[in-house]
Automatic annotation (TrEMBL):
<dbReference type="Pfam" id="PF13561">
    <property type="entry name" value="adh_short_C2"/>
</dbReference>
<dbReference type="InterPro" id="IPR002347">
    <property type="entry name" value="SDR_fam"/>
</dbReference>
<comment type="similarity">
    <text>Belongs to the short-chain dehydrogenases/reductases (SDR) family.</text>
</comment>
<protein>
    <submittedName>
        <fullName>Beta-ketoacyl-ACP reductase</fullName>
    </submittedName>
</protein>
<dbReference type="GO" id="GO:0016491">
    <property type="term" value="F:oxidoreductase activity"/>
</dbReference>
<keyword id="KW-0560">Oxidoreductase</keyword>
<dbReference type="InterPro" id="IPR036291">
    <property type="entry name" value="NAD(P)-bd_dom_sf"/>
</dbReference>
<dbReference type="GO" id="GO:0008206">
    <property type="term" value="P:bile acid metabolic process"/>
</dbReference>
Amino acid sequence: MLNLNLSGSIALVTGATGDLGRVMVRTLAECGADIVIHYLSNESKALELKREVEALGRRAIAVQGNVTKQDDIERIKTEAAEQLGTVNIVVANAVIQYQWTSILEQSASDYESQFESCVMQSVYLAKAFVPAMIEQGKGGRFIGINTECAMQNFPNQSAYTAGKRGMDGIYRVLAKEVGAHQITVNQVAPGWTISDRDREAQSERNEQYESSVPLKRRGSDQEIANTVAFLASDLSSFITGAYIPVNGGNVIPAI
């Protein structure tokens, strides 16, 4: 009997107060993990999530920090270790938001922000959390939230696509570098996903987008969180270096 059980695990979710992050937090906690809830500015939502996790019988802390700053990530690691223990599941979900436009119009600072929040966040998280996973000797999970845009390369996506494709390179190399320690490194690539924001605005449907998706619908935030929970669990113990689209087949990697 298959059992997605994360009891005894401690998971960090960056960008935990965002549309996808908050569902990841709830889902990982429902599976039994204690949670480090990272936030940049939305302290009220972080504390609300903390209460939700604790109501499920799990431990949780809310930690503020800028994931593009190595010192902040090191501080998050220290607070997590002191209050909960060794983090063995890292979910790099945070990303800087910006206004998309053409390459000719996009500012250089937007490319820099995407590099910082996609590539360097992942590097800093690896430097901070992987050594303790290795020392603990029980393996671990390193999961990044990528995007279908990294395969689409549509107009106006350049800064986001560049950041996420750079992130992809980091994860593929890291998977090979830490695999001997039974630490898996994988990416989840959502499509245009339905979240609470859509439900509140009643904007879940978009026929133009749905027409290009083989499953003829948009995915949900819960479906993204389910994939993250699977990759965080022992059920995925022999999967590493993967880029997994969760988008109803809207992009399909080739061999």
